[in-house]
Amino acid sequence: QQRDKLKQYQKRINLNLEKERMLARQLLKEGKKEKAMLLLKKKRYQEQLLDKTENQISNLERMVQDIEFTQIEMKVIEGLKIGNECLNKMHQVMSIEEVERIIDETQDAVEYQRQIDELLAGSLTEEDEDAILEELNAITQEQIELPEVPSEPLPEKIPEASPIKNRPKPELVAAS
Question: Are 11 and 49 a contacting pair, CB within 8 Å?
């Protein structure tokens, strides 16, 4: 709000400066040099006020930016605080001993499964492997149905095809 008030003040001073400059020219034309000097001194004083106002506006803008940045920092700190509290609650729920126990149980279960796999893989002999492969081939053969192969020998010479009589020509069939 102060910044806006200062900007309005600047506009007013700028308008006054322009008016006083024109008035000083008019006084000089009329030959009133003393009044013109006094008016120019006043104008100079107002220009200095304008510079001070500009500095104050700059300081206010810097302060506003600092306040906004501090507000952002406060939100970040609040977020970190909440995150830290959440982590602490999670750590209370799960202790290091609990995590170590779960990891040990998982490793034991993996080791147990590996032992079962080794037993299953090692318990089959070569004969068992052959029997399994034979059964797999039998199942595969059952699934494939091939046509029967003729048992008589094939003729050596292929008889020529006899022409079919009274068969309509394709052009006539399409036209009718």
Answer: no
